[in-house]
Amino acid sequence: MKKISRRHSLSLKLLISVIVWVTGAIVFTGYALALLWQLENAGKDINYAGSLRMTIYHMVTLTTQPNHQKPLQEQQDKFVLTLNNLLKSDRNNFIFPNNVKIDDQIQIIKQYYQHKLIPIISPSNPSSRILTQTQLNTIDEFVENINCLVKLIENQNTQNIVWLRFIQTILIIMVIFTAFSAIYLLYRFIISPLTRLQAAIQQLSLGNLSERITIINKDEFSVVSEGFNKMADNLQDLYNNLEQKVSLKTIALEEKNHELAILYDMTTFLHECHMQDTVLESFLDKVIKLGDANGGFIGLLNKEKTALDFLYSQGLPKQSEIVKKCYFSAHCFFDVSVLPKNPNPIYIQTKQNNNLQLSIPNCIKVAYDHFVIFPIWHNNNEIGMVVLYFTNPRTSSEHEKQTHYLIKTLVQQLAISVENQHLTLKEKQLAILEERNMIAQGLHDSIAQSLSFLNLQAQMLEKAIDHKDYNRIKQNLSFIQKVLKRFKSQTKIAIEAENLNQQFFLTQQQQLQVVFILQEALSNIRKHSLCTHAKVTFTSDKNFTMRIEDNGVGFDINIIKEKKLSHVGLSIMKERTDKISGIINIQSVLQHGTTIELIIPQS
To answer: Where does the HAMP domain start and stop, copy by copy (predicted)?
Structure first.
């Protein structure tokens, strides 16, 4: 919006006009009030001066009467008081200062009264007396001075009346002038611009898009008019070039859809299961075509950020094709340590001195005009880079910026794909380790098959007892006895099992873990105990308890705890006990055998 200068501002003009008018009205009204007050004071002064003459004549009359001392003294006091009131009277105004002639005349009257009149009318002589002609002349002269004072005051009063009429005339003229000026200014600065604006809006609504407002002044209405003209220009431009603008918007929308399609296809491709070589090769080929580049390469940094674990290139000069054959340092093309540590694209001119002081090979300088580095970042960690080489000079056009922004987005998706492949590889390695661990646990003892068979047959026997299938019970017991005999024959250890015919209310998971713990315990007995007799006791009162005892050599369990030695068999039993929320107690004394007790609470 165009800024209005102060000297052209309509609001400022109106404000100044109002201030000037109010100031003038206050000044002239103040003068009129001051003159009115002065006229009021002048009326009082005329009365005071007139009373002086009456008082003099009264005093002269009293002197001719007997016993006139007291009345004469009162009249003299009255005369002095009136004279003092005249001296104190305020005759100043805003137009004329205090009249010096009036003050001088009052002083003459005062001195004349004290020096010449007091001796004549002094009340010292109580008897009446007749005044001489000389004394009468003196009194007449004194009265003439009083008349002169009255005339001076009346002249002053008349002058004030003239000024009051003048000021009133000015006020009337100012009101009339203000009224006509207000009408003229209101029409010129407000009504006329509004009328022009209304007419232009009406023409525009009728379809006349070429209608414009002529800007005359530089006030607020000029800004409104300028805004109207711009709006009319835009409307006319839209109306005349609507088809072209729709075409441009359609092209822009198609480009945006094309970019989204590329992004979607590339993202889908990157997140499919492909080998890393295939992903990088295809990604570089598509990015070179998308950016209209003449060559490029993709490099992934190792953990130390000093070498490239993998490098794939396309379209590079023959002198640089060695990149496909060697384990490359990260500084082969340029020193990556001086690059900015952020994922934004970096533009480098090959034939000019760059701010980063990169060392660029001569083959690259000869073949290309510039290249762009797109760092590959994931979770604030640089894992590689994509470099595109261009033979044509950089244009810095809007299309180029959008393309590079799209490539930057694709590089971010590439980083996610590379990290996902690393995670997938780690998951496979972890799965292999877990599988090896399971195989190690499964192969820990070959006798586990026999014990599992024994457990299954015991369950079949339990079901047979519940259904009172005594033939089936006999078959299962016979089979269990055969398994025990075969176990004894394999291990040469006498095994005794008690309370196998009880009912144990265990879940399938608990039954499975109990069998595994039992087979692990018997495996340890076979390999380490050197015993001749083992006993397995099952009880099921409130809790399920399995107790395994042998008379072997035993071991010192404290040594294992203090040295924190890892025993595979004991660790396996502890892990399986934790899975079913059980408790396992191991007691062993050297040369006095070992006892393992498994407790599964009923809860």
So the answer is: 188-240
Any residues with CB less than 8 A from the CB of 299 and at least 6 apart, and which?
308, 310, 311, 328, 330, 384, 385, 387
Rounded CA-CA distance 546/419 in Å is: 49
Cα separation of 245 and 241, whole Å? 6
Label residue 485 exposed, middle or buried (CB < 10 Å: 0-12, 13-18, 19+).
Answer: exposed
Token code pair at residue 464 = 């047979």
Q: 228 falls in which pLDDT band (50, 70, 90)?
A: confident
Q: Could you report the per-residue pLDDT of 451-481, keeping only the tens digit for each?
A: 554 555 555 555 555 555 445 444 444 444 5
* Residues with Cβ within 8 Å of residue 323, at least 6 apart in sequence: 297, 311, 313, 316, 332
Residue 476's pLDDT is: 41
Q: Domain 444-600 in CATH: superfamily?
A: Histidine kinase-like ATPase, C-terminal domain (3.30.565.10)
- pLDDT of 357 higher than 80: no
DSSP 3-state helix, strand, coil percentages of the chain (rounded to 5)? 65, 10, 25
Q: Which two tokens stand for residue 411?
A: 């590089």
Chain centroid, CA 52 distance in Å: 89
What is the predicted pLDDT for the residue at 598? 92
From CA 149, how far away is CA 2, in angstroms rounded? 70
pLDDT (0 to 100) of residue 144? 87
Name residue 14's amino acid: L
Question: Is residue 587 within 8 Å of residue 594, measured between CB atoms?
Answer: yes
Residue 593: what are its φ and ψ, rounded to 5°?
A: 85, 180
pTM comes to 0.37
Q: Which of 126-135, 306-315, 373-382 is predicted most confidently? A: 373-382
| CATH number at 274-425 | 3.30.450.40
Q: How many CB atoms lie within 10 A of CB 423?
A: 10
Check: CB of residue 472 under 8 Å from CB of residue 539: no
Alpha helices in 64-117 (DSSP H): 69-88, 100-112
87-106: per-residue pLDDT in tens?
776 555 545 556 678 878 88
Q: Would residue 396 be called left, alpha or beta, if left means φ above 0 and alpha means ψ between -120 and 50 degrees?
A: left
Answer for the pair 390, 364: CB distance below 8 angstroms, yes or no: no
Give the integer Cα–Cα distance in Å for 382 and 528: 54
Query: Residue 602: exposed, middle, or buried by beta-carbon count in 10 A (0-12, 13-18, 19+)?
Result: exposed
Q: What is the largest CA-CA distance in the chain?
A: 187
Domain map of the chain by residue range?
6-189, 274-425, 444-600
Residue 494, SS3 per DSSP: strand
Most confident of 96-110, 114-128, 281-295, 339-353: 281-295
CA 397 – CA 400 distance, rounded (Å)? 5
CA–centroid distance for 443 within its chain: 63
